[in-house]
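Example record

The entry below shows one chain as it appears in the dataset: sequence first, then structure tokens.
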Amino acid sequence: MNQTKLIVGLGNPTDNYHKTRHNLGSYFVYKYAYVNHIKMIEKKNFWDKLVI
């Protein structure tokens, strides 16, 4: 049986927190998507990217 999983990585959208621990969740999601060849798309109604 194929189970759907949701991975959420929170981060702060402003430049003040760029490359800080406050964006660790977002960095994890980006790296996970890259390593697993998962395409990320942008949604204009969100501050960040969604992994679909």
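Notes for this example: The first strand starts at residue 40 and ends at 42. Strands lie at 40-42, 49-51.
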